[in-house]
Amino acid sequence: MTHVAAILSRFVATLATRSRAVAGLCLAMVLGVLTTACDEPPTSTQAPVLVKTEPGTLIFHPSTGPVEVTLVNVSDQPVRVDRPRIDETTPDWVAFTVGEDASATQIPAKGSITFHVGVEAGYFLGPGDARPAVVRGGEEPEPTAANEFREGKSRLVFSVDGVPHTGMPIRFEDPSWVTQYMLPALVKILLLVLGFIMPLASLLTWMERKQSAMMQDRVGPNRANIRIGGLNLRLWGIVHFIADGVKMLFKEDFIPKRAHRALYNLAPVFAVAPALLVFAIIPFGDGICYDQLFQPLSGADVAQCADGRGGTPLQVAQIDVGLLFYFAIASLATYGTALAGWSSYNKWAILGSLRASAQMISYEVAIGLTIVGALLVYGTLEPHALVKAQETTYWGIVLQPIAFVLFFTAGMAETKRAPFDIPEADSEIIGYFIEYSGMRFGLFYLSEFIETIFMAAMLATLFLGGWGLPFGMLTAGGFSSALAATLFLTAVGLGLTVMGVLAWRTSKAGELFGAVVALVGVLHLFGAVYAAFTGWGTAIPHVLVVVLGMVIWGGKVFLLCGVQLLVRWTLPRFRYDQLMSLGWKGLLPLSIANLVITAILVYLLMPGLTPAS
């Protein structure tokens, strides 16, 4: 008890002396939260909204088919809604149609009804004879050029218990390919590569050294430092990867005399380029809506934005055969290893490249069969659709536990990391990039960590619900309930607080960092209390939901990378015959058996499907 009291007193002293500004800011935020929780909610003079439309604004493109619209009764009493219709006072009302499934009906308390709204895109195609009606003193619209679409607006209206509702705005637009696809893709590439993949790959080089040192009772990297004024920051050796990068940039770039210069230079590019390209199909969030960032949105709103109407999906490229794209591109990395060994004109390097090629081809078979199991369960190869399917059913690790283990094992073999690092095992053979130095060697070194991140991202996408939380705790509008918000904030707060205290205790230089992290954790705990007593969290701004989803996805990827590093320093290296036997005699039969069992269960348990007599 005396030791614990001493730790607490020293921790409080650190907060008081080294982070007064941070502590004051956090204290002000906490007091603001408590004041808000104690205040009476403001009374509204407006009539309560009884029915809500989902989506809030309906957006059409020329290729958009009929869209499902939902009217949700948010009151505790049943309400009657007349037949929804297009407002005839709007200029472009004749271009939109309400489906026959829309009719006057009574919606039960907390219930909903659905119907469809369509558009006649040819009405907006210029020049054409069909022109919008000029209503209420409106001006005649400017003529549209041939084969171009103009913008159009209208509104869906209805009455609730005889009272006219504000309705739902409808918009028709035809954005250019540049604004709809190219610019968002460039921003997402920069965000994903420069904001996540490259920093995490660099950090993993430090984590691997530090983790191996901890497991082997060594200190590990701790000498590299950054001097800022009179402060010498070592940051537990994290800046070692910066020193590595500087060293590789200035190290002598040696090319063997008898090497094939063109292929020798291309090999590192073939190794790292496929590892980055396959990230194009990985969804790191749902969808982001440009004009509604600070409003709580429904699932229909976000689904519309993820479809490219009014927003963009947080995925570089949405391809119907996305997982097949992974196999097509990832297999090109084999050329990098093969060319590196052959072009170096070194017999040991070419033996290593042959082993690497054989290993990658062997384990790709098992990976492919495990992915087919996910295809049978969820009925799609598109990664974004796979994550959405897990939101409405169960995570892949629940429905395909054997496939998760098989994919994880084969994925580690694909990255050529211990215990599957035969192609570069120092005790058996010299690696396929033995003749490389400088930044060319750095590309091979970095590509392995990028592949590690990609395998973790694939595992999170296929088996761990992508950016979602278990049990549907996170929805498009926020947390599913105040209890879900409380549990999430409590878990994050406890984790950050413990991590901050541990970082604070490591060294004198870590006290400030640890104190800040611990304070952020405590702030999360206050947020959990606030959510428990006020019900906060079920309707939060869209931008906060987007950031939360990306953080959850990044956390899953980070933890899975840590597990791969843990395995790397736990299991001994396989012999080459053991490695190939595991692939062909172990994983392949198990993946086939898992596929057959999955197919039988899907056939027998799928609703509406009965075995043939």
Outline the fold blueprint.
Blueprint: H1 2-18, H2 20-38, E1 51-54, E2 58-60, E3 67-73, E4 79-81, E5 85-86, E6 96-98, E7 105-107, E8 112-119, E9 152-157, E10 159-160, E11 163-164, E12 168-172, H3 177-215, E13 226-228, E14 231-233, H4 240-250, H5 261-277, E15 287-289, H6 299-306, E16 311-313, H7 322-330, H8 333-343, H9 347-378, H10 383-392, H11 396-399, H12 401-414, H13 438-463, E17 474-475, E18 478-479, H14 482-506, H15 511-534, H16 542-568, H17 576-605
Parallel strand pairs: 2-12
Antiparallel strand pairs: 1-3, 3-8, 4-7, 5-9, 6-8, 9-12, 10-11, 13-14, 15-16, 17-18
Q: Could you describe the 3D structure shown?
A:
The structure is a single chain. This protein is of the alpha+beta class and 613 residues long. It has three domains: 51-174, Immunoglobulins (Immunoglobulin-like); 250-472 and 570-609, no CATH class; 481-537. The chain contains 17 helices and 18 strands. The protein has helices at 2-18, 20-38, 177-215, 240-250, 261-277, 299-306, 322-330, 333-343, 347-378, 383-392, 396-399, 401-414, 438-463, 482-506, 511-534, 542-568, 576-605; strands at residues 51-54, 58-60, 67-73, 79-81, 85-86, 96-98, 105-107, 112-119, 152-157, 159-160, 163-164, 168-172, 226-228, 231-233, 287-289, 311-313, 474-475, 478-479. The strands form seven sheets. Strands 1-3-8-6 form a four-stranded antiparallel β-sheet. The protein has a four-stranded mixed β-sheet with strand order 2-12-9-5, with no helix packed on it. The chain has a two-stranded antiparallel sheet with strand order 4-7. Helix 3 packs parallel to helix 16 (542-568), helix 8 (333-343) packs antiparallel against helix 9 (347-378) and helix 12 packs antiparallel against helix 17.
